[in-house]
Amino acid sequence: MGEKEFQELLAEQGGVCAICRGADPQHLDHDHRTGWVRGILCFNCNGGLGQFRDSPTRLARAITYLRGTTWQRALIHPGVYQMCSPTRGRPPSRRS
């Protein structure tokens, strides 16, 4: 892909990363099986897809994992919140 096509694709994306919407993405993302261009990504999003080996299944499992282990504030009484995990996990240690 030439510079002109790159700039056109970037303009179609609004000048931001196709995943996180961060400014000034520089990495042309493509499907490693087909070679087809998918979009322009920032360094972190491009690397993240690579770490997950472009697998929608692995990414879905990661999302499920995060949703199930991320501690959130839960309203237990008007104005009173408690930290809880949706499905599992331990509270953060005082040292972290």
Summarize the structure.
This protein has 3 helices and 4 strands. The protein has helices at 3-12, 43-51, 56-69; strands spanning 27-30, 37-41, 72-77, 80-84.
List keywords for this structure.
alpha+beta; 3 helices; His-Me finger endonuclease fold; single chain; about 100 residues; two-stranded antiparallel sheet; about 35% helix
Descriptive account of the structure:
The protein is an alpha+beta fold and 96 residues long. The protein has a domain at 3-69: His-Me finger endonuclease fold, CATH 3.40.1800.10. Helix content is 34%, strand content 21%. The protein is built from three helices and four strands. It has helices at 3-12, 43-51, 56-69, and strands spanning 27-30, 37-41, 72-77, 80-84. Strands 1-2 form a two-stranded antiparallel sheet. The longest helix is centred in the middle third of the chain and has 14 residues, at 56-69. It is elongated and about 55 Å long. It starts with a helix and ends in a 12-residue tail after the last strand. The model has no long low-confidence stretch (mean pLDDT 87).
CATH architecture of one domain: 3-Layer(aba) Sandwich
Radius of gyration: 19 Å
Averaged pLDDT = 87
- Specify the CATH class of one domain: Alpha Beta
**Cα separation of the termini:** 45 Å
- The general outline is elongated
Strand order of the largest sheet: 1-2
Tell me the layout of helices and strands.
Elements: H1 3-12, E1 27-30, E2 37-41, H2 43-51, H3 56-69, E3 72-77, E4 80-84
Antiparallel strand pairs: 1-2, 3-4
